């Protein structure tokens, strides 16, 4: 227990952690990847797509969107000119 100022930590004498031998600093991945995230307000989803599979993912995603857009309602669009004339 440390009876110092708030936010102050007790020094237990441990040194900084050393990195594992399996990971090498500066090792660049041969394939760039893209993180995609989406939410509907309640549920969050994410996926990682490699640069080689971007076209495949894009085609599958666009087909999914087209298949699920038939249930949407048409928006009632009123032109701005009609609104401004009605206000005068």
Radius of gyration, in Å, reads: 27 Å
Main sheet?
Answer: 2 strands, antiparallel
Number of strands: 2
Main structural class:
alpha+beta
Mean pLDDT, rounded to whole units?
A: 78
- Roughly how much helix do the residues carry, as a percent range? 25-40%
Helix and strand sequence: EEHH
Distance between the termini: 73 Å
Strand order of the largest sheet: 1-2
Pfam family, one: SRP14
Protein name: Signal recognition particle 14 kDa protein
GO biological process, one term: SRP-dependent cotranslational protein targeting to membrane
GO molecular function: 7S RNA binding; endoplasmic reticulum signal peptide binding
Short description:
With 88 residues, the chain is α+β, with helices and mostly antiparallel strands.
Fold and architecture overview:
Residues 1-17 have a biased composition (Basic and acidic residues). The chain has helices at residues 54-68, 80-87; strands at residues 33-39, 44-50. The chain has 88 residues and is an alpha+beta fold. The chain has a two-stranded antiparallel ribbon. A hairpin with a 4-residue loop joins strand 1 and strand 2 (44-50).
Throw out a few tags for this protein.
single chain; 88 residues; alpha+beta; two-stranded antiparallel sheet; 2 helices
């Amino acid at each position: 227990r440390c009876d110092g100022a708030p936010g102050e930590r007790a020094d237990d004498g441990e040194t900084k952690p050393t990195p594992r031998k399996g990971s090498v600093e500066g090792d660049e991945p041969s394939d760039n990847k893209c993180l995609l995230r989406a939410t509907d307000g309640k549920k969050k989803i994410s996926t990682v797509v490699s640069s080689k599979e971007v076209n495949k993912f894009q085609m599958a995603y666009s087909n999914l969107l087209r298949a699920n857009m038939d249930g949407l309602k048409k928006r009632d669009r009123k032109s701005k000119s009609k609104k401004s004339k009605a206000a005068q």
